[in-house]
Amino acid sequence: QPLISSAKWLQLHGLKRNKLSLSQILSQIGFRHRKDYVTTLGKLVASRYADGLFPQYRRARDGSVYNLTAKKELILHFVDCLTGAIELYKQRMEWLTSESRQIFGVIQERCIVIVLDFGTVAPTEFDLCRDALSMVLVEQVTQIAKFNLIRAAEDLMKWQQKSTLVSEHTVKSGVAWLWNLDRMTAASHTSSAEALLEAMSDEAVSS
């Protein structure tokens, strides 16, 4: 799936876009039972001609009543459409909560710098961090334009001097650099801030 926000995804695949919101469906399978103000009578008059002729549906949100006139075939068509929409939503949710997206969300920027601050993690945690970072490089960074890796340390460590074009070769190089890092690299109390400032100084990175 493309690396887009849920808001953008809903613009493309949401119920409103596909005319499947409740109000849109009701307007296609019936008509609203109205109460109008009649000037000559000076009062609200409800239309009564539909009473008993059609099944009615009352919307809980605003109490409006709709007279349902659609044939069974049209109702079943909307059932199929909504069933498909539900399945699509489930797939999106499964995708959002799987693999690297569980940790990093969905990367939407075209150029990123990942700042690594491992602190004093245990060896197993260090490897878990590198596993997660390798996963995001392979699954998501491969779909953007440029990237770089910077490790917060007393002596700042950079994979490349500036953000580099994404390719199969550069992603593999970045993963290899991760797995060659020393867990015990010395850090200072300003290391994290210095690494962030270094990342933000890259002109290609917007944030």
CATH architecture of the largest domain: 3-Layer(aba) Sandwich
**Major β-sheet annotation:** 4 strands, mixed
Q: Kindly report the CATH topology of the largest domain.
A: Rossmann fold
Report the β-strand fraction as a percent range: 15-25%
Number of helices: 7
Number of domains: 2
Helicity range of the residues? 40-55%
What's the CATH class label of the largest domain?
A: Alpha Beta
What class would the helix/strand composition place it in?
A: alpha+beta
The radius of gyration over CA amounts to: 28 Å
Q: Which parts are unreliable, with pLDDT below 50 for 5 consecutive residues or more?
A: none
In one word, what is the shape? Answer: elongated
Distance between the termini: 24 Å
How many beta strands in the DSSP annotation?
9
